[in-house]
């Protein structure tokens, strides 16, 4: 929308052409999303509290979580609202990538909302069944994958990129659809599993979104992409605005979600944010880098897989409780210590991911 305004106002004063600059719109995107989150947050928390839309706590979980029972949840709706408004305001709406990332993100938000609604408002502890949740996630991911594959305009859009190696690309054909599907669904569920402590999931999400914004900017710039030997994806630079909106809304949410949390994001936020990171990584062809930078999410997911597999095959648990952040809680680590240490690990992993730009 700002681009349309810029076209009109630049006829009056050339200074308004600054709105055409991607970096300027990205900064506006961060600030807009952050402002919306901070403004909407208190009213949303008050409304959630009044309607008693609160978090339920597992009886077999850490005792420190019992005090969190009743804390407002579904705060992820605030994140999605801020991301959507900021992106629609600051991004180039003629860019198909913007609509793909928005629709994938919001669609997963709807799936998460239904799950939260059933759990919290209808009193169904199971929420949306695992089969139903997986079906709808799969439908959205496959739809996005097929659309992107069939509308690809250059070979680089569907090639598999191997980081740390210069000019190592693989033409995987329809394997692109399969890869895209697993990245979106896997990332969505991984962030959802990580969202168990105050601020644990949102800060790594913010850091990864910021790093992906750098990849998007460089991939969309023909000179930078050639210099760094990364695939040039025409018009991918516009994803910087979306990533910036994720950063701003995430920081705004963290204002209320930091320990002790005033609100939880719920599945409506966790499923959507994970899908957002996954689809952006796919579009800038950095799936492996996403796995590196999202190492915390990967670790949490693997811990659950190991725990379930071990219990089903040996009737024994490897961890005191899964996901792994609960294991450390039961070992006696204070919640803030776990959160900050996981954040530190995320910082290191994001820097390693960014290092792939030059270590080739």
Automatic annotation (TrEMBL):
- What are the TM regions of this chain, as residue ranges? 20-45, 73-91, 97-114, 134-152, 172-193, 200-219, 239-256, 263-284, 290-311, 338-357
**Pathways per UniProt:** Cell wall biogenesis; peptidoglycan biosynthesis
Q: Which GO terms describe its cellular component?
A: plasma membrane
- Which key words are in the record? Cell cycle, Cell division, Cell membrane, Cell shape, Cell wall biogenesis/degradation, Magnesium, Membrane, Metal-binding, Peptidoglycan synthesis, Transferase, Transmembrane, Transmembrane helix
List the Gene Ontology MF annotations in alphabetical order: metal ion binding; phospho-N-acetylmuramoyl-pentapeptide-transferase activity; UDP-N-acetylmuramoyl-L-alanyl-D-glutamyl-meso-2,6-diaminopimelyl-D-alanyl-D-alanine:undecaprenyl-phosphate transferase activity
Q: Which reaction does it catalyse?
A: UDP-N-acetyl-alpha-D-muramoyl-L-alanyl-gamma-D-glutamyl-meso-2,6-diaminopimeloyl-D-alanyl-D-alanine + di-trans,octa-cis-undecaprenyl phosphate = di-trans,octa-cis-undecaprenyl diphospho-N-acetyl-alpha-D-muramoyl-L-alanyl-D-glutamyl-meso-2,6-diaminopimeloyl-D-alanyl-D-alanine + UMP
- Specify which residues bind Mg(2+) according to the UniProt entry for this protein: 192, 267
Name the Pfam families for this protein.
Glycos_transf_4
Q: Where in the cell is it found?
A: Cell membrane; Membrane
Predominant localisation class: membrane
Topology relative to the membrane, per the entry?
Multi-pass membrane protein
Enzyme category, top tier: transferase
E.C. no: 2.7.8.13
**GO biological process entries:** cell division; cell wall organization; peptidoglycan biosynthetic process; regulation of cell shape
Name the cofactor(s) required for activity, per the record.
Mg(2+)
What is the purpose of this protein? Catalyzes the initial step of the lipid cycle reactions in the biosynthesis of the cell wall peptidoglycan: transfers peptidoglycan precursor phospho-MurNAc-pentapeptide from UDP-MurNAc-pentapeptide onto the lipid carrier undecaprenyl phosphate, yielding undecaprenyl-pyrophosphoryl-MurNAc-pentapeptide, known as lipid I.
In the record, the note on similarity to other proteins reads: Belongs to the glycosyltransferase 4 family. MraY subfamily.
The protein's name: Phospho-N-acetylmuramoyl-pentapeptide-transferase
The gene name reads mraY
């Amino acid at each position: 929308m700002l681009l349309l305004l810029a076209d009109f106002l630049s006829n009056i004063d050339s200074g308004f052409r600054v709105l055409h600059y991607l970096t300027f719109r990205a900064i506006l995107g961060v600030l807009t999303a952050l402002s919306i989150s901070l403004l909407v947050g208190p009213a949303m928390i008050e409304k959630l509290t009044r309607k008693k839309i609160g978090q339920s706590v597992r009886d077999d979980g850490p005792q420190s979580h019992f005090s969190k029972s009743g804390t407002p949840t579904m705060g992820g709706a605030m994140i999605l609202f801020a991301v959507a408004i900021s992106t629609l305001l600051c991004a180039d709406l003629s860019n198909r990538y913007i609509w793909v990332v928005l629709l994938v993100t919001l669609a997963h938000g709807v799936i998460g909302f239904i799950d939260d609604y059933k759990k919290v408002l209808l009193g169904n502890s199971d929420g949306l069944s695992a089969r139903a949740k997986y079906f709808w996630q799969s439908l959205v991911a496959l739809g996005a994958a097929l659309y992107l594959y069939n509308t690809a305009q250059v070979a680089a859009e569907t090639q598999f990129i191997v980081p740390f190696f210069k000019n190592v690309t693989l033409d995987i054909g329809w394997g692109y659809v399969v890869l895209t599907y697993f990245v979106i669904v896997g990332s969505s569920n991984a962030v959802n599993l990580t969202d168990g402590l105050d601020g644990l999931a949102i800060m790594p999400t913010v850091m990864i979104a910021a790093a992906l914004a750098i990849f998007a900017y460089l991939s969309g710039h023909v000179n930078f992409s050639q210099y760094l030997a990364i695939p040039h994806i025409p018009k991918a630079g516009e994803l910087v605005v979306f990533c910036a909106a994720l950063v701003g809304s995430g920081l705004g949410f963290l204002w209320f979600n930091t320990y002790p949390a005033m609100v939880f994001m719920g599945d409506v936020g966790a499923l959507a944010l994970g899908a957002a990171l996954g689809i952006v990584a796919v579009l800038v062809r950095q799936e492996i880098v996403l796995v590196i930078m999202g190492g915390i999410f990967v670790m949490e997911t693997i811990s659950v897989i190991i725990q379930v597999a071990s219990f089903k095959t040996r009737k024994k648990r490897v961890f005191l409780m899964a996901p792994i952040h609960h294991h450390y809680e039961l070992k006696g680590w204070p919640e803030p210590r776990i959160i900050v240490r996981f954040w530190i690990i995320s910082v290191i992993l994001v820097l390693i991911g960014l290092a792939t730009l030059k270590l080739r």
